[in-house]
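4.2 Preliminary Data

To establish feasibility before requesting continued support, the project team ran the inverse folding procedure on a target of 446 residues. The structure was first converted into the token representation described in Section 3, and no sequence information of any kind was made available to the design step. The complete token record follows.
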């Protein structure tokens, strides 16, 4: 096909323009870089970077925040949310169209062409609510991450309480088992020598066996708790985690707890995250309502025919809203908003009820502990008397072990009550968000 000289020059000029335009666009494009997966597991963190001595609860919390693998993974959501917010804030690109018609035959003497540029007006109309929704969703991710960190810290606190208190309980049970086994050994020798009968010794032997089984269960429980704490702290399972042997959470102020329970919505990150999710959905509803207007594109177009007659003017393209007026999407967004509204109301109510329930349980445990204190003092007094009588030869070993076992039971009961109280206080602090850092932007919590 023959192309006139003027047409060839126009084509070369247009070709150069397209090439330069393509280069300009490509210069701002992102490039692909591979990110290979690791072939081996990374080494676990070391405890030495915190302290050389026994770890306090604050030390454990700091290690959890630094090295917990689940939290490190969750923090990647922040970058994703920020990228989504960036995408939602971008203006829609204008559309450019053009065509050329080379003269093949006829009376014309030029190449015909058509060119136009247009912008999607509907995307501009819904841009503001979409930006608001993206900002709220990004803040929701941050609030959710903060709540996840706080929950992991709460789990670590509970494990510290359980390990320290169960270690105390283990020492009490070991001492009781040692006495029971000593008595059992004497009974076996007595049976072998014909001085005792199996029938009379059976309860004592069974008590020693039961104490051994309980001690084994507690040892397995302690090992499992230590492994769980090591996993939360991001260290190897066999790492020896030295903990301070005294738990001091301070007294519980019931009035302050009730006041904090009344303001959960302003402080708890999970409730703030739900508020932000609801705010994002409100923006989505507004965007859906604005999108019910027909898709509209506005721009300018120009053309030239083969006889060099040129014309130009505005160009408008829109859909006729006969069937689809976005009513389906509007209904979906409104239903989703109602769902989020109900979810928030239920979460707020259940959170308050959980706090009040734990407060009542703590009061019951406190009353039980108060009642057990004089019994423990009396048991320790009886133990001192039994020790003196045993060393003086005034009582036999069976009576002495019975007294010691009763005292150990009292001590174990007290330790269990204290452990339950500490667990309740940790759970209350977690539910209330008491003492947590303010890591949310100020405008988010308003």
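Position-by-position output of the design step:
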């Amino acid at each position: 096909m023959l192309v006139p000289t003027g047409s060839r020059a126009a084509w070369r000029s247009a070709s150069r323009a397209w090439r330069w335009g393509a280069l300009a666009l490509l210069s701002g494009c992102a490039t692909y870089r591979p990110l290979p997966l690791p072939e081996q597991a990374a080494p676990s963190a070391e405890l030495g970077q915190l302290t050389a001595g026994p770890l306090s609860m604050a030390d454990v919390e700091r290690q959890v925040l630094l090295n917990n693998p689940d939290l490190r993974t969750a923090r990647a959501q922040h970058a994703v949310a920020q990228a989504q917010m960036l995408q939602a804030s971008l203006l829609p690109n204008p559309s450019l169209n053009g065509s050329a018609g080379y003269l093949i035959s006829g009376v014309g003497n030029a190449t015909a062409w058509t060119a136009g540029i247009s912008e999607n007006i509907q995307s501009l109309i819904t841009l503001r609510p979409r930006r608001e929704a993206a900002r709220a969703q990004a803040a929701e991710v941050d609030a959710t991450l903060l709540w996840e960190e706080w929950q992991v810290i709460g789990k670590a606190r509970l494990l510290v309480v359980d390990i320290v208190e169960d270690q105390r309980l283990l020492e009490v049970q070991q001492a009781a088992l040692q006495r029971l086994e000593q008595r059992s050994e004497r009974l076996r020798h007595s049976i072998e020598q014909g001085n005792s009968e199996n029938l009379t010794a059976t309860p004592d032997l069974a008590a020693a066996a039961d104490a051994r089984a309980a001690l084994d269960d507690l040892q397995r429980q302690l090992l499992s708790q230590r492994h769980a704490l090591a996993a939360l702290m991001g260290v190897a399972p066999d790492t020896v985690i030295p903990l301070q042997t005294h738990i001091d959470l301070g007294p519980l102020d019931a009035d302050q707890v009730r006041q904090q329970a009344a303001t959960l919505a302003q402080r708890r990150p999970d409730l703030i995250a739900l508020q932000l999710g609801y705010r994002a959905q409100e923006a989505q509803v507004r965007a859906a309502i604005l999108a019910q207007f027909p898709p509209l594109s506005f721009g300018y177009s120009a053309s030239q025919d083969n006889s060099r007659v040129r014309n130009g003017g505005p160009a408008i393209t829109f859909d006729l809203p006969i069937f689809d007026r976005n009513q389906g999407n509007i209904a979906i967004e409104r239903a989703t908003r109602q769902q989020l509204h109900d979810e928030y109301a239920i979460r707020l109510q259940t959170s308050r009820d959980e706090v009040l329930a734990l407060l009542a349980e703590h009061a019951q445990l406190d009353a039980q502990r108060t009642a057990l204190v004089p019994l423990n003092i009396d048991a320790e007094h009886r133990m001192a008397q039994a020790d003196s009588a045993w060393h003086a030869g005034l009582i036999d070993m069976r009576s002495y072990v019975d007294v010691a076992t009763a005292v150990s039971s009292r001590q174990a009961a007290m330790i269990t009550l204290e452990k339950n109280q500490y667990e309740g206080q940790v759970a209350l602090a977690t539910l209330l968000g008491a003492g947590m850092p303010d890591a949310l932007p100020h405008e988010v919590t308003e």
